[in-house]
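Let us practice reading a record.
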Amino acid sequence: AANMDGKTVNWNLAIQAYLSTDANLDNSDKPAGGTVLGASPLGYLDPEEELSGNFGCGFDSDISQYTYLLLKVDHSNMVSESNEDNNVFACKLESVEE
């Protein structure tokens, strides 16, 4: 469970996108945009419960250098969780021929 009611009314839960050469988030990855998912108070999120929505990301780089898009929820570690190591999702990018 996560208590997503922040310490202040300006507390925000955000998601950050990164371009990466592999499926692991590290300092060599390139930020590719992000968005605020919501501002406090957001209530509680129970185990296995989900929040959903849409956002766009962009970058100013040669896509051939990067083979993964990584998404990290709560990239500023604002939400106290029992497992802080499960907030990254990796998606392999594939080139599209037109």
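A brief commentary: The two ends are 44 Å apart (CA to CA).
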